[in-house]
Specification:
With 217 residues, the protein is mainly beta. It is built from two helices and 15 strands. 15% of the residues lie in helices and 38% in strands. A six-stranded antiparallel β-sheet has the order 1-10-9-4-3-2, with no helix packed on it. Strands 11-15-14-13-12 form a five-stranded antiparallel β-sheet, with helices on one face. Helix 1 crosses helix 2. The structure holds FE2/S2 (inorganic) cluster (FES). The site of FE2/S2 (inorganic) cluster has 9 residues, from loops.
Amino acid sequence: MPLESALVWTPVALSADLPAASVIPARLADAALAVWRAQDGTVSAVADRCPHRGMRLSHGFVRGEALSCIYHGWRYGKSGRCLAIPAHPALTPPETIRVATYRAAERDGIVWVTASQEAGAVPAHDGFLGLRSVTVAASPARLAASLGGTLDGSVIDGTIGGVTARLLLASSGEEGVLLVHLLIASGAADAGKIAASRALEGLRRQAETATITGEAA
Ligand code: FES
């Protein structure tokens, strides 16, 4: 799976990091997104730019089933359409006022987004559970080498903190920096989760140090 394509399902966040009625910034290749979860649990993804004056919608807030811009309070529904303009409470906003939307889905505790209407099934990672996400200033090959794992496209399989683990890689939006989602075997005990989470910090340091010192990947 290419890291820089907006046309494939891309893991942008862990479900646990997007509670009900919240919004977070995310990246899909070159695009800045606002990914939000309505009160009813539905996840949506939109361009991170308010059509009114360009404020980042990821700085906004969610009330019920709508995402509001922090600047002048324009409210957007799951379809991207503007639902209300507080300065003109009697006005029904024209249908043409809308923010660009992306397909969003959840599977195995991961939030996936794509710009393609043709993208097939959301990737499955059965038997794994999302634990945490970090950014790592290293290449996929360097990260795989530091883990002693196997790199296949944007997935690294290996063991971390003594736990069977899978790393899902995505673009962070910053050149040379990966967004890394750590998944661990879903049956792992709490002690294993803690060990894996700590080991991820060590892995990050190791991969970044190797990048700086130019060790062979
Ligand atoms: S910039 Fe978003 S409502 Fe004005």
